[in-house]
Amino acid sequence: MGLIVKAMDDVELIKEKINIVDLVQEYLPLKKAGINFKANCPFHSEKTPSFIVSPERQIFKCFGCQKGGDIFTFLMEKEGMEFKEALEMLAKKAGVTLKKTPDRTDFKERLFAINLKAQEFFHYLLTKHELGKKALDYLKNRGLTDASIEQFGLGYSPNSWESLTKFLLKRGFNVSEIVLSGLGVASKTGSYDRFRGRITFPLIDAKDKLKGFSGRVLNNAEPKYINTPQTPIFDKGNMLFGLNFARTEIRSKNEAILVEGEMDVILSHQMGVKNVIASKGTALTEGQIDLVKKYCQNMLLCFDMDLAGDSASRRGIEMIDRAGFNIKVISLSKGKDAAEVIKTDIKLWQNAIASATAIYDYYLQSVSGRFDLKNPVHLRQIRDELVPVWAKISDDLLRDHYIQKLSNFLKIDDAVLRQAVEKARAGKERNYTEILQQAKDDAVGVSSRRELLEEYLIALLLHPPKDFVFVPGFPETLFLRESFRQIYVLLFLYLDSISFKSKAFSINEFVSDLPKELLLEVDRLYLTELDDKLSGSELWQKELEQVISELKKALIKASLQKLSHEIKNAESFGKIEVLTVLTKRFRDLSVKLKNL
Ligand SMILES: [Zn+2]
For residue 522, how far is its CA from the centre of ligand 1 (angstroms)? Predict the structure, then answer.
């Protein structure tokens, strides 16, 4: 472990010596705003400042154009520098002599080497050994050829606790390397195998480096997939499966097809459609989008779910749009699994690709499926759902085109709609208190109000009043968004531990071992400005309670809606017993809602 610490030295040392506030102030004037500093953003044009610098966290963040980072990122963005140049310039400024860091590269090479050794082991077991027979049969049954298994280097990790660990030890790797590579999990006696009884997929980057593995179960056990955890050479948020084989084709077609899983990718390549890659889930990261951006401008998405009806997917799509891609959605006939289609009917797959729907037309299709266009209440709901989406279309011409389309669709004047969209664009700075006060789910739309309240709740918890000891008592299930749940659980543990030791809240202490994806989210919410009044503990607590109760109400309302749907179903099928149970549950919940 000591080696990593040493390699980080220079960067950390420079960060300690240079205050981000001073550095930014060499370029633009900053104004004090509460615990932070504020300015008009140097990276996009604006009239009201949404560029925030935090001396505590030593980072900046623009809430308009979303740019953010530390002193290095700031220089890279502002001066168009590479990391190395920024490092050299800041080292000079800080009076730090840069050390050569051969240690780090040697050490990383060891991790690549251990991965390659493990790959040999897994691949041998799958293709040559009795232990891998079942897994091999399974893959053949799913339609994979020997050539594909060879090309993608699939393997099998036996269902035992230490066979890989023992193998690697015998090959000259030590326990700490095995654990650091993520292949082993540290235990009292050393290390045990992370991947057990799984088909292994090597995760190889665009430079053909083997960075980690994902492992899939053969049956329906959970979790279906596990991955190498974050390591010095692997970051899930910077990996797309299949990119090493797909990149040439993606470049020449100027188009990437993003699918859900490893199997979809391999089968598609096997059938000759080779510009296909997989993300792990729909929650794409900026890092993954950047990877594709090098090769093409068109992105086609093929997922099993309704992307327009799911808020995590909508956020992913926003990011892809901001990165400048043209986005289309590939729709397969209902209930059909991509891998199934690709394997059995390659023509159907090719046709589905050729007739992919432009993303904003896809949104329109999705709402026509989910809402009744003859019902004025539903038309309003469609408007509420799509106006915020339309507001985020970054290209002006494209946005205007779809404002026209949506106004035809809703049969309202396009000037009225344009105004609503512009208003939503201007309102990017969030006024949480306003959202909280609006009892109705007005312009922000049903799902987004709930989401904004979840966000507000985290923001409040990250800004406890000074010298105020507080441990929240609500369950994490109050959050629908997974990342908020994770943040809340960690925050809860932290708040509990400091209250026990009666220590003050320290943001730096809380984030010190947060995973990177969560850290970005926490920093954004920590840098969000809250109303000044909320620095008093009484008002802060009151506000907190109100947000919690609103979220509880929203949860119950959603369950009631679902129940009433189920009741209607039960009625039309004459299921009396079910009906009794459902109606009772409906009554109980209604009472609960009333008493909140
Ligand atoms: Zn900006």
Answer: 19
- What φ, ψ does residue 282 adopt, rounded to 5°? -85, -15
Radius of gyration of the chain measured on its C-alpha atoms: 26
Contacts of residue 145, defined as CB under 8 A and 6 or more positions apart, other chains included, come to 270
Neighbouring residues of 272: CB distance < 8 A, sequence distance ≥ 6: 346
Q: Report CA(94)–ligand 1 centroid distance (Å).
A: 27
Cβ atoms of 19 and 101 closer than 8 Å? no
Distance 324 CA to ligand 1 centre (A): 16
Please tell me whether residue 356 adopts helix, strand or coil conformation: coil
Give 504-545 pLDDT, tens digit per residue.
Answer: 899 999 998 888 888 988 998 999 888 888 888 899 999 999
Q: What is the DSSP string of 279-324?
A: -SSS---HHHHHHHHTT-SEEEEE-SS-GGG-HHHHHHHHHHHHTT
Give the tens place of pLDDT for each residue, 465-500.
Answer: 888 888 998 999 999 888 899 999 999 999 999 988
| Residue 452 to residue 435: CA distance in whole angstroms | 8
Residue 392 alpha carbon to ligand 1 centre in Å: 15
Span from the CA of 46 to the centroid of ligand 1 (angstroms): 8
pTM as predicted: 0.64
Nearest alpha carbon to residue 315 among 290, 338, 291, 281 = 281
Query: Residue 445, SS3?
Result: coil
- Tell me: the pLDDT tens digits for 163-217? 999 999 999 999 999 999 999 999 888 899 999 999 999 999 988 999 999 999 9
357 burial level (CB within 10 Å; 0-12, 13-18, 19+): middle
